[in-house]
């Protein structure tokens, strides 16, 4: 039986990747998850992702955002 995983990216450092050209941190493209982390293909699971737009820093979290998060 295949498992399903949903990765929800709200923003912040954990979802950043270094741009090789500028060396700046930029948001990770979760649509390319298997390209950047190919070992995930070895697991019997389907991984989907949802990225908030605009991204929000954890210091800006509030109850109204928690409601949006719960709806996802």
Care to describe what's here?
The structure is a single chain. It is flat and about 35 Å long. The two termini are 24 Å apart. It has helices at residues 33-36, 63-71, and strands spanning 3-9, 16-18, 25-27, 45-51. The protein has one domain. The chain has 72 residues and is α+β, with helices and mostly antiparallel strands. It has 2 helices and 4 strands; from the N terminus they run E-E-E-H-E-H. The mean pLDDT is 90. The protein has a two-stranded parallel sheet. Strands 2-3 form a two-stranded antiparallel sheet.
Strand content: 25-35%
Give the distance, in angstroms, between the N- and C-terminal Cα atoms.
24 Å
The number of strands is: 4
Q: For the CA atoms, what is the radius of gyration? A: 14 Å
Class from helix and strand fractions: alpha+beta
Question: Helix and strand string, N-terminal first?
Answer: EEEHEH
Most strands sheet: 2 strands, parallel
Low-confidence stretches: none
What's the structural domain tally?
Answer: 1
Strand arrangement, largest sheet? 1-4
Helix content: 10-25%
Number of distinct helices: 2
- Characterize the overall form: flat
Mean of all residue-level pLDDT scores: 90
């Amino acid at each position: 039986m295949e498992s399903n995983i949903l990765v929800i990216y709200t923003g912040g450092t954990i979802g950043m990747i270094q741009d090789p050209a500028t060396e700046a941190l930029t948001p990770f493209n979760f649509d390319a998850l298997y390209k950047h982390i190919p070992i995930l293909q070895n697991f019997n699971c389907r991984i989907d992702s949802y990225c908030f737009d605009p991204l929000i820093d954890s210091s800006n979290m509030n109850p109204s955002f928690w409601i949006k998060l719960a709806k996802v």
